[in-house]
Write a structure and sequence with these properties.
globular
Length: 404
């Protein structure tokens, strides 16, 4: 095997496209420690890694992959087999954590295989979140949307409130002539409704101006039953993704915990959970002006503005939009994400409390997983990194480092 072929196979292995025969050849060459392996410039495909350390880590993970590449036992459930295939294809298999630690995040494994695994979650599965929300009308009336029937839920002036299938709520103008026009302008613009998602909930709402908002778990959006002619303002807590209907005469304004985002027509995500260190807005299309205090940067597609909660200057940089919007697509996506940030996301979606035991500093992971899986399946996958282990009791989850 020449150097170019060795480099090509290494790249295929990193991309997850290598076949079993080529993987065995690659493993044999790395194990042999030949001149070709020692002189191979892997930096061509991983420029930020130490050559020798990367070679060692690749060999370690190739061995694990080869050892685990056996058919699942016949007793394994079809759901579990499907989960294995789906997540293996979706996961990024080579994880570079801080401190030069290589981590394997996939669902490879077989019954009885405990390599790199110190604890297996055996507690009952904790169900994932779903389409859950409460709508609070301006008069204080509350409607539990997940249990309400599809169809019209009520009418406020000229606006109908309609629950659609699949976790969607829409504010629609009543047909002409059906409802008399409100004479008091204050009834049009000062009546605010609020949609709130609990931990373990998410929902979508179409606002009176046809803008669409996706609410993540543990979030709320306060908005008027009808927008004013010259301004459209909503108040957010938590996280939401906005697709704004363009109206040059009425800018759309999101107020969230001291930050203000102003747009005409665009798509963007705002994250402002109180347990996060920053308030962030990331732009998918168009542009926004995000302001907080004296800072008011313009943010363009594939950028994000971050405002520290404890003071400091706002920063604008490139955004990993796949990671930012993973929740909207029904996924968890981690990219060198520290374990505490990961666990905060898990806590909101599975409605669990997290306890940290031991030193978890420096534990950063890559990977992609479905938000439809149970918490126990999520913990099992994370445990297969060999970096963390979990213990569950009711709705409390303890996170601990794996002893070296």
């Amino acid at each position: 095997m020449n150097k170019q072929e060795l480099l090509d196979l290494t790249r295929q292995w990193l991309d997850g496209t290598i076949g079993s025969e080529d993987r065995q050849r690659l493993q044999d060459w790395y194990q042999a420690g030949s001149d070709e392996v020692r002189e191979l410039r892997i930096s061509a495909i991983a420029p930020n890694e130490n050559e020798d350390a990367l070679r060692s880590r690749i060999l370690q993970n190739i061995r694990q992959s080869a050892a685990m590449d056996t058919p699942a036992p016949a007793t394994r459930s079809p759901v579990r087999r499907l989960l294995r295939r789906t997540l293996t294809a979706a996961a990024i298999v080579l994880i570079m954590a801080t401190g030069g630690m290589a981590v394997w995040l996939s669902v490879h494994g077989r019954k009885g295989d405990t390599q790199g695994l110190t604890h297996r979650v055996t507690a009952p599965a904790l169900a994932p979140g779903g389409k859950r929300a409460i709508l609070t009308l301006s008069d204080g009336t509350t409607i539990t949307l997940d249990s309400a029937r599809d169809g019209m839920l009520g009418r406020q002036g000229n606006t109908q409130i309609v629950k659609l299938s699949g976790g969607h709520l829409a504010y629609q103008a009543a047909a002409a002539g059906k409802v008399p026009e409100e004479k008091d302008a204050s009834l049009r613009y000062n009546n605010y409704n609020t949609i709130t998602t609990p931990r373990g909930g998410e929902y979508q709402v179409k606002l009176p101006d046809s803008s669409i908002v996706w609410l993540n778990s543990a979030s709320s959006l306060k908005f008027p039953v009808r927008f004013a002619a010259d301004s459209r303002k909503v108040i957010l807590t938590g996280e939401a993704y906005f697709e704004i209907s363009r109206n040059a005469k009425a800018p759309f304004i999101v107020e969230v915990d001291g930050m203000r985002v102003e747009v005409l027509g665009t798509s963007f995500d705002v994250m402002a959970y109180t347990d996060e260190d920053v308030i962030r807005t990331a732009v998918a299309a168009g542009s926004v002006r995000a302001s907080m205090g004296k800072d008011a940067p313009l943010v363009y597609p594939n950028q994000q503005a971050s405002f520290p909660r404890k003071g400091g200057t706002a920063s604008v940089g490139c955004a990993d939009m796949e990671e930012v919007l993973a929740w909207k697509e029904g996924k968890f996506r981690f990219h060198r994400t520290d374990i505490r940030t990961i666990m905060r996301q898990i806590a909101r979606w599975y409605n669990v409390e997290i306890d940290y035991r031991g030193d978890l500093s420096g534990v950063r992971l890559y990977g992609t997983m479905s938000r439809k899986e149970s918490a126990s399946q999520m913990f099992e996958l994370l445990e297969q990194t060999g970096r963390v282990r979990f213990s569950t009791e009711g709705d409390r989850v303890a996170v601990m480092p794996v002893a070296p």
